[in-house]
Specification:
mainly alpha; transmembrane helix
């Protein structure tokens, strides 16, 4: 049977290599998760910003149109 504690790789035992990999795996996984979440939030924020811009543009157009109609009505009424 192979003794895993005595296998050397650049003067590291197999146990040392596993300890290094396991200690590095969690921070790397968290970094990947954080970057993916951040990118998704950025995309959602851009979509919301675009939606808000469209809504404000439509509201501004509606207000201008309403003002125009009111002015035309007053002009017609006052004649």
């Amino acid at each position: 049977m192979v003794d895993f504690n005595k296998r050397l790789f650049w003067h590291f035992t197999f146990k040392d290599i596993l300890a290094i990999i396991s200690s590095v795996a969690i921070p790397i996984a968290l970094a990947i998760y954080t970057s993916i979440s951040s990118e998704q939030q950025k995309q959602q924020a851009e979509k919301k910003q675009q939606f808000d811009f469209e809504q404000s543009r439509e509201l501004r157009q509606q207000l201008l149109y309403d003002g125009f109609l009111n002015s035309i009505y007053k002009l017609e009424k006052d004649g």
